[in-house]
Amino acid sequence: MKKNILAALVSLSCALGATAVKAEDLLQVFEIATANDPTVLKAKAQADAQSYQSDLAMSTLLPQIGLTMSYTKSDATSYQSVGDLSNQVKVESDTDQFSRGVSLSQTLFDLGAWNTLDIADKQALQASGLYDAAKQNLIVRVAEGYFNVLSASDNLEFVEAEKRAIERQLEQTKQRYAVGLTAITDVHEAQAQFDNSVAQEIIAGNAVETAREQLREITGKYHEKLDFLNTDTFSTTRPTKRSSDFVKVAEDKNINLQVSKVTVDIAKDQIELAKAGHYPKLTLSASYGDSLTDNQINGANFDDQPRSDSSSVGLNFSVPLYSGGATVAATNQARAFYVGASQDYETNYRAVTRTV
């Protein structure tokens, strides 16, 4: 569908007149809008951000490795009596300790983590679909904005021509009144018509500026000159397919409908994620560390075992028995959200089949 609309844009651009050298055609305006429209750029940023959510969800299922290192230095001074209490010996102790260790943990079973990963993948797909929908909607908004400017400009030209004609009639009426061929009321009536045409010209001029401003809101720049549509070279073609064929295509390829379907799938996965609060978790953990101690008293080493090593491997198994009813409540809530998402999909489906 997007390709068909783009093809129509190209066809329209080819049909636009080229009398003004610097005038921009529809395709050029669309390209500018693609690079500057805040709505599309926001949707792209959200799609990019959501794509990293899958990596974050996967990270909880991968090994977690950590390294620790520490160094401690302590000095102490004491006095000990030898024989006579008046005979005290100064004792100085210096201790240097260096330790290091590495730890590893690996999730072996966590159904909730896998549910979270599935949801993250579908949310990334959902955000990508919303980005595609924003780009498709941009085509329509640019075309509407472009032709609104042309329509308002045509209307302004018509109003200006009408004002000039009324102005000539006013001059003729004044001349006829000057020679006594008409009444003063005719002059007043002609003047009123001219004043009204001036007001209509102001309104039409404001409409042109409003249309240009609305187009600038999309593209981020003012477009002073736009190519006009050459109706001699552009003509619409009659659809060759039946309406039922278009409905089938919309069911398969309509972006908003696809996004709505993914939203239903996410809501369904949220139910499984909530139920995972009842399931056990199994984690493998392993660690290794060593330490080196240098203990000196008055300069002499008194540490019989200056180095020590330690290692451990273990399994951590946990089963939630009761969480105050939170898991049941979360599951029921997720089911309600799923019903709501399903009804949103049905609403979108009916709207798509109606508008095809």
Walk me through the structure.
The protein is an alpha+beta fold and 356 residues long. The protein has a single domain (21-234, 280-320), classed as Up-down Bundle (Outer membrane efflux proteins (OEP)), CATH 1.20.1600. It has helices at residues 2-15, 26-36, 38-59, 111-178, 184-219, 243-253, 255-275, 326-355; strands at 64-82, 84-109, 281-297, 300-301, 307-318. Strands 1, 2, 3, 4 and 5 form a five-stranded antiparallel beta sheet that branches. α2 (26-36) crosses α4, α4 (111-178) runs antiparallel to α7 and α7 (255-275) packs antiparallel against α8. The longest helix has 68 residues, at 111-178.
Q: Determine the N-to-C terminus distance.
A: 12 Å
- The ordered H/E elements are HHHEEHHHHEEEH
Regions with little confidence, pLDDT below 50 for 5+ residues: 15-21
Strand content range: 15-25%
**Based on the structure given, which CATH architecture is correct?**
Up-down Bundle
Largest sheet: 5 strands, antiparallel
Radius of gyration: 40 Å
General shape: elongated
Mean pLDDT, as a whole number? 87
Relative helix content: 55-70%
Domain module count: 1
State the total count of DSSP E strands.
5
Number of helices: 8
**CATH class category label:** Mainly Alpha
Keywords: Cell outer membrane, Coiled coil, Membrane, Transmembrane, Transmembrane beta strand, Transport
Organism: marine sediment metagenome
Subcellular location: Cell outer membrane
Coiled coil: 149-176
Q: What keyword list fits this structure?
A:
Outer membrane efflux proteins (OEP), 356 residues, alpha+beta, elongated, 5-stranded antiparallel sheet, 21% strand, transmembrane, single chain, transport, T1SS_OMP_TolC
